[in-house]
Design goal:
By secondary structure, the chain is of the alpha/beta class. Among the domains are: 87 residues, no CATH class; 119 residues. The protein is built from 21 helices and 8 strands. The protein has a 6-stranded mixed β-sheet, sandwiched between helices. Strands 1-2 form a two-stranded antiparallel sheet. The termini are far apart.
Amino acid sequence: MVKFFQTKRIPQPHYAIFLTGIFLLVGAFTAAHHEMWRDEIQAWLLARDSSSLMDLFRNLKYEGHPGLWHVCLMPLSRITKSPVIMQVFHLLIAATTVYLFARYAPFNSLQKFLFAFGYFPLYEYAIVCRNYALGVLLICLFCILFQHRYTTFQIAGAELSRFLLIGAILFLLGHTSAHCLIITMVTGFALFLDHLFTRKGILATGQMDERQIWIGFGLIAFGIITSVLQLNPPSDTGFAVPWRWSYDADHLKNIIRIMTRAFFPIPEAKLHFWGSQWLGKYPVFTSIQLRLSYLLIIWSSLILLRKPTALLIYLGGTIGLLSFFYVKYFGSMRHHGFLFMLFIMAAWIYRYCAGVKYFTPINRLNGILGKSLSPVLTLILTIHLIGGITAVRMDRRHVFSYGKKTAEYIKARSMQDMLMVGEVDYAVSTVVGYLEKDNIYYMRGNRLGSFVRWDNARTHDVSVDEIIQKTREIRDEHKQEVLMILNKALNKDQISGNALTELTNFTTSTIGDEGFYLYLMRED
């Protein structure tokens, strides 16, 4: 285990800058060619079109995530309406994580390189702009501070405990996503137990201000409570409403298999690469996938066995995330990635945790398995590198979403100020974001809007006849032509019988339902 933490090959400050520079070049090139999809644009529109912080939090009640990411986006949306600024900001967050990881993580230089260009840090948490990158950055900051959690530092003449910073970081972490809230809960509990068992020895050294320690715990608890309150959905929510509390053996097995998606994230080299698993194509892999998932959990736990704090964070967080995937929302690869981030987090803080000794056979087993950590981690990170390269290559080769190109088409013909009707709302919102348009009429919910409000007013299906009828009403009321943005085609009779002109269509994108058909309803 000791060799695993020796990182003296390259001076770390220089290596961190070098690695971050390469990461920024690759990330900037990829981001410049990435067409954002609805989930990315939704956060931007929420921040852009909320009039105040209070208004933002009211709008966020339907989102299923707390609002730290959206709060960060609000100032940017006041600078420009272009969502491109969000991509720049998001990439800088990811690059900061890479720098801190390369500078401070107790892994060797090869492992740091493989991590930086792995599937999650390079693609899911750098190119696809979501709230998850903030969570990874805060996890990284927590790990850096963990070693000196009970020491103090001077600022403006005052002596402050670093545990206050840890409390603040975990407060923020719990406000990045539902998944990081679970990690925050488990980490806070593990730190509490760690403090109970180590406080006497640390107090004896005179290095710890216990009052500030409890303030730090107060920050963690306050962060958890306020995040849970944000996540409590309103009564009219219409997204991911049910909970699964009944036992389903097949569903449970599928949940456990998620471990292999987190540890072996190689997408297929195809149009719909995102969220796919290349290894899943092979019957040999699928036949052992469940057993391999169990093996990953057991192997990781046994390696961490002698450091209860690291073990509790990893095992408790893993069970917590898998439970969430079971009872609430199965999720996608970006969500599953936090299972791997938990392992990295636990391996990072391992050497800084208080240790315990067991019976000699258990100690020997832990020592033997500890020697396997470095080569196995290198192998796993190599797989992540393959996944990262594949994702970047597929994103460059294929159009991720046609929202951007559709908006460019509309702008090129100076049609962006026209009245517009959109269906389906969640797909068309991508076009709205790239158009930098205040609102269009969404058929689902029968209202003007930009971001999607996930309430039960929009859960009904909308027929083609209803779309055409509403478009006609808007045209007649305003005596203007109306642009229809649909993500399905109309037939010839529907076009010719309703004074419609088919302008163009954009189809076959990675996000399958973010292809668009444009129709113009002329004035009578």
